[in-house]
Amino acid sequence: MAPSPLLVARGLCKSYEGSRVVDGLDLHCDAGTVLGLLGPNGAGKTTTLRMLYGFIEPDAGEIRYGAKPFAAHRSACKRMIGVCAQEDTLDHDFSVERNLRVYATYFRPRRADIDKRIAHLLDLFGLTAHAHQLPAQLSGGFKRRLMIARSLVHEPQVLFLDEPTTGLDPAARVEVWQLIARLREQGLAIILTTHYMDEAERLSDQCLILSAGKAVAQGAPRELLGTILGEHVAIVPAAQIEPGALERWALAELGAAPARVLHDWHVPLTAAQLVAFSVQFPDARFAVRDPTLEDLFLQLSAGGPAARPRTP
Amino acid sequence: MNWNPHLGDLFDWRSRAVFARNARVYMRNWRTAFLPPAIEPIVSFLAFGLGLGAFVGSIQYQGSAVGYASYMAPGLLAQTVFATPFFEALYSSYVRMFYQKTWDGILATQVELRHIVWGEITWASARGVGNATVVACVLGGLNLSGVVHLQWQWLPLLPLIGFVAGWSFAAFALLFTAVVPSIDHMNYPVFLVGVPLGLISNTYFPLPVHNPVLAVLVQCNPIYHLSESFRSLLLRGQPDLHLLWLFVSSAVFLLICATVAQRLVRRRVLGE
């Protein structure tokens, strides 16, 4: 039997000043899975998250946590979710330990074993040695750990991580990845937004790609890449091909101009398209690699085929 | 506009949690947070009540001559009850909302924005009670030493009366907190609203009430009723109609300001 989703949203719509920011969005996230919510700036991710947190009301649509409709069981649903926002919202007047303790007072029913829970979180996130320090005394990586630990103090079932590794150095990013993987193993449903496509690819079981407020694709990262971009990406130095020739060919054959990254063209291709490309540009020297979510993201930003909603 | 001020949330556990958070921070920094604001009215009393009072001599109050220091003492207490919640809800709430993002963190929990508003209003009013209690204690000491002549038995009650009035002053200040673009713009509500309200309130000197425009303005000013009700209790030893007016005007002021403040804060913080 398939696991029942802990978060289900159906037909979410939100407009600001007549402009539709989120347009009929459906999403769900099961226990023990990570849903990557991806899309370029202005795609509607933040508005979607704010509706899911309960900060703003959707104009239409329904959100359910477990079996409970959010609109009718607001407090109980908010008890089920933990939010680790992108911005630092730590309470800088309190120590690390006090941050957890005070945050726990914003949830009911209160945990009887709050001391044990705080000790567990401090240990899990490697914060025990810093328990009596102020957040301002922590490095960026430790602040981020504290933000995540704080969002878990009431033991939620659904965790929102909004760009959890932005601004962290590579070592700190890996540490946060490991923590997220551990939380998934513990059965949390995690909704992750990130601009790092490698991160989304590594951590997400499912990705939901947003563009202009609509879901343009949903599925496992590898599956999505194969379906939308094809099996290969040709990296073609721009100097290898006469200016304009590649764009004309791509528009005619692929339906979109390729992405330009510094001095190279990145051209997503199926096997058949790769053969056609080689025939069209026989003198061009180029490299071929597997597609990544980065390629998908670039195509979305350029308004290529990936930016158009796909019917299942 | 939704005219529901969510009065039931005033004592909700979530509003209390916001209050308790602010109280914890205050207790942590109590030396810097408590002593300077509490000492400021005492310094004012020494400078004006005793210093200037030596030149003024006595003032006519309800047909009797009263020493200026005694006349000013209830006004000073009223000014503390007004200024402390007003500034707390103006500056400290703004810092928590805008710079520290404390409200954003709390909103991701079971606490809603209306609880934050009520928690902030109640906390600001409670701070007024704390500072007014210190001033009342000092006035009690001065009364014992014969510097002022007050009906001291009413002193313990005044900070509690101030708590009710403080709610409305804090809610009033939150209106500005919700709309000022930056902390530098706080000068507008402070100097164009707070200071004039304090001036036309009989706190430090009796106003020429024969001016009809001024008389209307004074009657609409809750600080006037606050200082006059305190004066009646401390100088005459009995409550008068100003006390009733204070409760009525504070309740009306609170309901209007809290409702509008919730709407404005919602627009500012949540964009709705």
Description:
The complex is a heterodimer of chains A (312) and B (272). Chain A has 312 residues and is an alpha/beta fold. Chain A is built from 11 helices and 14 strands. Chain A has 2 domains: 5-219, Rossmann fold, CATH 3.40.50; 229-307. Helix content of chain A is 35%, strand content 26%. In chain A, helix 3 packs across helix 4, helix 3 runs parallel beside helix 5 and helix 5 (140-151) runs parallel beside helix 6 (170-185). Chain A is globular and about 70 Å long. In chain A, 42% of the residues are buried. By secondary structure, chain B is mainly α. Chain B has one domain. Chain B has 10 helices and 2 strands. Chain B has a two-stranded antiparallel sheet with strand order 1-2. In chain B, strand 1 (58-61) and strand 2 (64-67) form a beta hairpin. The longest helix of chain B has 32 residues, at 68-99. The model of chain B has no long low-confidence stretch (mean pLDDT 91).
Q: How many strands of chain B?
A: 2
Q: H/E order of the elements of chain A? A: EEEHEEHEHHHEHEHEEHEHEEHEH
What's the CATH architecture of the largest domain in chain A?
3-Layer(aba) Sandwich
Query: Which residues of chain A sit in consecutive blocks of at least 5 with pLDDT less than 50?
Result: none
The first-level CATH class of the largest domain in chain A is given as: Alpha Beta
How many structural domains can be distinguished in the coordinates of chain A? 2
Order of helices and strands of chain B: HHEEHHHHHHHH
Largest sheet of chain A: 6 strands, mixed
Q: What fold name stands as the CATH topology of the largest domain in chain A?
A: Rossmann fold
Averaged pLDDT of chain B: 91
Name of the CATH homologous superfamily of the largest domain in chain A: P-loop containing nucleotide triphosphate hydrolases
Mean pLDDT of chain A: 90
Please work out how many helical segments of chain B DSSP would assign: 10
| Separation of the first and last Cα atoms of chain B | 12 Å
Structural class by SSE content of chain B: mainly alpha
Q: Which shape of chain B, going by the Cα principal axes?
A: globular
- Give the helix proportion of chain A (percent range): 25-40%
The backbone outline of chain A, from C-alpha atoms, is: globular
**How far apart, in Å, are the first and last alpha carbons of chain A?**
22 Å
